Each structure stands twice: as C-alpha cells, then as structure tokens.
Amino acid sequence: MDFWDLTKLLVRRWMIVLPLLILSAGLAVLVTTQVRAEFTATAYVQLVPPVITESDPDRATVDQRNPWIGLGTEALGNAAIVMVTDRQFVEELVLAGRSDSFTLTMNDRSPMVVFEVVGDSEGQARLTADQLIDRFTRSIATLQGADGVSASDLITARRLDLGSNVVKSTSKTKRAFVAVLGAGGLISIAVTIGIDAWLRWRRRRRSGQLPAKPSSQVVPGQKPPGQAPGQEGAAGAAPDVTVVLPVTMP
C-alpha cells in the first residue's frame, strides 16, 4: 500500500479516522495541561584581571606572582566550572530544593561565563543561578589562593546581570503535545486500516467469495487420511475370508 492508496482509504473511512483523530487531539491537550511549565534563568559573570602597574625590577612579574594570568583567564574559568559542576555539589543543590538542570558556557571571545538554569518555578531557577554564581566566585578565589596570590594580583569574578533574567519556557509543553498528537495519529491510521481489512473480509465471506473449507469425506477405494498401509481392516472394511471345500474322490 503506497501513500496514495492510504490516502484514499482514509478518505473512504473518514467516519472511523476522524473521531480517532479528534480523540487524539483531545488527549494531547489534556496531557499538556498536566505538564508543568519550565522557567529559564540566564546570568553572566565576567572574569576581570588585576590592574598591572609598572613593577620594580627587583620584584617578580605579575605572571610569576599569579600563574593563572600566564595560563589565561579562560583556563581559570574552565577550572572553576569543573568545581561548580562537581557531583557532590550538584547533589547538595538537589537536597536544598534547587534545580540540577543547568549549563555553564565559557565565551570564546571574552573571559565571560554564561549560566543557564532550568527550574520548575521562577524562584527555583533564580535561587539556583545565585547559588551557582556564588560557588563559581568562591572557586575562582580558592584556585588562586592555593598558589598564594595576593589580593592585588587576583583575577576576580564580576556578575553583569541583576538576577532578573528569568523567562517562562513552553518548549517542554510543545514537545509533549507534538509527541502525543503524533502517536495518536499513527494509532488512528493503524486502527482504521485494521477495521477496513476486517470489514472487507466480512463482506467477502457473506457474498461467498471466500474458498470453501476442504471436505473430510473419504472417497470409496481411497485410504482414509492418516491410515498406514496394511491397516484397511482396522478402518471398518470387511476382512478377506478363504473357504476350503472338501474334495470327493470317485
């Protein structure tokens, strides 16, 4: 059956497929009402290097005083991201009622980290973003403090947004609607094809177009089915009898 044959079948059986499609659409709407909306919070943190002044010739250079400056602010930012995405910290977020659905992306053009948090509510998304930024800022200071960097040579993390970048996302609801509607459409087509095949079979049976069942009668002289050679007498046939007559001598 090609696409054109399927289309003609659905048009012919519209009284079957149309109610099924309406039922599928209603079910899809019902499912979307049960799906909770998502909220996405976006935050931006810029890594700011220290102010480099002319140093005393007898004093170590800024790269020597802070090795992260020599490696680059991107290296420091990526190291802090690893600390933020640590599994133990994520489990602590979940226990505190925060969201564990977030991404941290380092900008390639500038030492800026983009935080994207998806939460079940606006408050959960915002609080999770705040806690992630706090962890990131402390990680930046911890990584440099391990090398004994002084306060004047520290690379600092500065938040650029005001914490109000929270928007309601309907992508989850749309995905659920499309998935349920698509599955319902496929099931409706399959049921319509099955009912159409059954109706045509029943019509052919009533009109006598179906082949009759083979007869089980045994034709005379023909062995019954399943009878082994030499078992003709067991099937009810009369056995052969030999009669010996006396002979009279003259």
Task: Give a short summary of the structure.
By secondary structure, this protein is of the alpha+beta class. 48% of the residues lie in helices and 13% in strands.
Which topology of the largest domain does CATH recognise? Alpha-Beta Plaits
CATH architecture of the largest domain: 2-Layer Sandwich
What count of structural domains? Answer: 2
Number of helical stretches of at least 4 residues: 8
The portion of residues forming beta strands comes to 5-15%
What is the distance, rounded to the nearest whole angstrom, between the alpha carbons of the first and last residues?
93 Å
Outline = rod-shaped
Please write the string of helix (H) and strand (E) elements. HHEHHHHEEHEEH
**Low-confidence segments, ≥5 residues, pLDDT <50?**
none
Q: Helix proportion of residues, in percent?
A: 40-55%
Mean pLDDT: 80
Structural description of this entry:
The protein has 2 domains: 3-33 and 173-206; 38-169, Alpha-Beta Plaits (2-Layer Sandwich). Helix content is 48%, strand content 13%. Strands 1, 2, 3, 4 and 5 form a 5-stranded antiparallel beta sheet that branches. It is built from 8 helices and 5 strands, in the order ααβααααββαββα.
